[in-house]
Amino acid sequence: MKNKELKILLSAPRGFCAGVERAIEIVEKSIQKFGAPVYVRHEIVHNKHVVDDLKNKGAIFVEELEEIKDKTRPVIFSAHGVPKKIPEDAKNYKMTYVDATCPLVSKVHREAENLNKAGYQIILIGHKNHPEVIGTMGQLPDGAVRLIQNEDEAQNYHAEKKDKIAYITQTTLSVDDTKEIIKILKNKYPSMKEPMKEDICYATTNRQAAVKNIAKQCDMFFVIGSRNSSNSVRLVEVAKKSGCENAHLIHSESEIPYNEIEKFNTIGISSGASAPEILVENFINALKNKFTIKINEVEIIKENVVFKVPNKLN
Predict the structure, then answer these.
(1) Among residues 28, 66, 132, 180, which one is catalytic?
(2) Domains, in order of start, for the chain
(3) pTM for this one?
(4) Residue 245 CB burial class (10 angstroms; 0-12, 13-18, ≥19)
């Protein structure tokens, strides 16, 4: 098995986006500034490797503020954003908090508030129970935002305010699926207001486009990322829809399917926006133990977006 030649098409851009890098940096700088432990509400980003690394450095992860025994310690809110109520609760507990919400998610939060103030019925296209969706819906009173998850729900949706309706979206959706949902809604409500700038973030869009670009040439496709990472799961779907049916998510408990790979000549690799590059390197090194590898990195766009950490940490 050792010497079978295997061509790897390595999708670029892939891996960490600016929002994820900023969130991890916020936790690390908070530990430096405040000492350990610092608490993090919800996984800072959806990746076990990242979470474990930060745990080793002194972060304690909780799902709710109530779980924090020592409320004199600072708490950090995850990159996915939180409902309005959470910072208020932290203030009531007199806790120091640092908000690591991705600036592109915060943009959607502000959009929702502005639309609500202007009297719009707001539709949020997204996935129920995803922390980003919970955070966005939690910016406004109950019932102010209607969640639509798929084309069927869009078909069956009936707006109370037909002439004053607007949509926003989760930042990590499939670009193509979202387009279809929007098309259905626009047919029903031609005057529907759309975001000034698309809500699906640049990193999600770029990673999907990069996978689309090479999927047809691949016999098998692997996306390195976590099962609860929305953007990673979307990349697998994009690979399948773009011509590589045999696409799989490689997460922390995955076994590498060497026997399956053995049958093919070309495999594609990408990684979700919360997956560190070391996981891609580990995966490729594991393949090198079994095959003779030729790597071709296919980059469609250079990313140079950087988000600053909050001033209180500098």
Answers:
(1) 132
(2) 5-16+202-299 (3.40.1010.20), 18-99 (3.40.50.11270), 104-200 (3.40.1010.20)
(3) 0.95
(4) exposed
